[in-house]
Amino acid sequence: MASGGLQLLGFVMAFLGWIGIIISTAMPQWKMASYAGDNIVTAQALYEGLWMSCAMQSTGQIQCKVYDSLLKLESSLQATRALMVASILLGLVGVFVAVTGMKCMKCMEDDQVKKMRMAVFGGVIFIISGLAALVATSWYGNRVARAFYDPFTPVNTRFEFGSALFIGWAASSLAILGGSFLCCSCPRRETSYPATRGYPKNASSTGKDYV
């Protein structure tokens, strides 16, 4: 029962992490214009994401523009896109594999060993998915931080971490932790020892002692 509860907890955490990765990938707030220092606060806030850039007016109206050409984008942004998309696809595969191996599901009930292996394999896929998203968000965040502290970067073009990065970090951590729980939910194999052989009792002497 304990391993089943740990397995269910791991799947829920990994699934929520996968949903968070999808949300983080779609959000345009990967970095936002910084108004620190001598920057003048304007009537709009600027955001940039993996797929589009947005400007929010003081009235609350948001205008977004999708990036025109894939070839014009920086190679680092293209790599970040690829890692996040790969993370989402791996997570989708991990969901189906882990669901098949869940103890509460009736799939593959006849072979518990294969069912257990499917749950562990699903956990491994979730871990890889979380690592891909963690690398992508950390790499992007490192680029934003380096550009912010670069003295050659104009003050009015500096950006800070957006909310999508924080969601991506939290989601990737959930996916990795949930996948680890799925891998640890596998019960240990008990070592079977051969049954001890009983020795027959000495048959009591039926004969009478003669003097």
TrEMBL record:
Its main location: other. It is found in: Cell junction, Tight junction; Cell membrane. Coiled coil: none annotated. Signal peptide: none annotated. It holds the Pfam family PMP22_Claudin. One of its GO terms (molecular function) is structural molecule activity. InterPro entries: Claudin, Claudin1, Claudin_CS, PMP22/EMP/MP20/Claudin. The keyword Membrane applies. The keyword Nucleus does not apply. GO terms for cellular component: bicellular tight junction; plasma membrane. Keywords: Cell junction, Cell membrane, Membrane, Tight junction, Transmembrane, Transmembrane helix. It is a multi-pass membrane protein. The chain crosses the membrane at residues 7-27, 79-99, 119-141, 161-184. Claudins function as major constituents of the tight junction complexes that regulate the permeability of epithelia. Belongs to the claudin family. This is Claudin. The gene is Cldn1.
